[in-house]
Design a protein that fits this description.
The protein is an alpha/beta fold. It is 38% helix and 17% strand. It has 8 helices and 10 strands. The strands form 3 sheets. A 4-stranded mixed sheet has the order 3-2-1-4, sandwiched between helices. Strands 5-6-7 form a 3-stranded parallel sheet, sandwiched between helices. A hairpin with a 3-residue loop joins strand 9 and strand 10. Helix 1 crosses helix 8 and helix 2 crosses helix 3.
Length: 235
């Protein structure tokens, strides 16, 4: 959703996600289009060559992340939207030193063998993507919000949390059979956007609110995002 909003604003985007559904190139996209097999072979060969010359033992995900960064550099990407693979603190994507902003989606009990047995353990691992002075947007359980507020004050990480600074509500649809959700999102500073997304599931309303908030933060940081680009991008 964030990448689509930026792309509809005319920004040259990169997108890195995982896992893939059919072929590995789906993970790395330029302006909404996966890279070609030939490009992917070229950049992965370059990563393998450098890793071999320095005797580095990269995991598959680490190698793919480096390859994606090379793709973005060669393609002249202006901004890249990067999804971590697992957790955050020790994730390869977290090697990016100065992100424009960071986003934590809902906390669930997944990957507990690596991230810890409770939602708090998992949240602390995911919060490792936060940077001092850089906005952190998050969707966390109410039980973690007091701790999150303390972290924001003590660390210097400005934070917008869903259910506090970010609010959303569903907009009634004229045709209940249409695929997707219409959502009204409100953020600090009197910001309000009414958007529609082509996805089912109550969790997508929450994801939509996070994406809209992220796009408005990027707008404040100088990216040329209009309300029309945000609305069209999410639709």
């Amino acid at each position: 959703m964030i990448e689509s909003g930026l792309r509809h604003a005319g920004v040259r985007t990169g997108l890195y996600t995982s896992p893939h559904l059919i072929h590995v190139q789906e993970r790395t996209q330029i302006e909404g289009t996966p890279v070609t097999p030939s490009v992917w072979r070229r950049v992965t060969a370059r990563v393998a060559q450098v890793a071999g010359s320095h005797r580095l033992r990269l995991t598959e995900f680490e190698a793919q992340t480096l390859a994606a960064f090379l793709v973005f550099k060669d393609a002249g990407v202006e901004i890249a939207v990067l999804a971590v693979g697992l957790g955050g603190r020790l994730d390869a994507v977290n090697a990016v030193a100065a992100p424009e902003l960071s986003v934590i989606t809902s906390i669930g009990l997944d990957h507990t063998a690596w991230l810890g047995p409770t939602r708090r353990h998992i949240y602390l691992e995911k919060r490792g993507i936060a940077r001092r002075g850089t906005m952190l947007i998050q969707d966390i359980p109410p039980s973690l919000r007091a701790e999150a507020r303390r972290f924001s004050v003590e660390s210097g990480v400005p934070t917008w949390t869903l259910g506090e600074e970010i609010c959303f509500s569903p907009i009634a649809q004229k045709n209940g059979g249409d695929l997707g959700h219409s959502v009204r999102v409100r953020c600090p500073g009197g910001i309000q956007s009414n958007v529609r997304v082509p996805f089912w599931g109550a969790h997508q309303e929450r994801n939509t609110a996070l994406a809209v908030a992220a796009l408005h933060v990027l707008r404040k940081r100088g990216w040329p995002l209009t309300e029309r680009a945000i609305v069209n991008g999410l639709a």
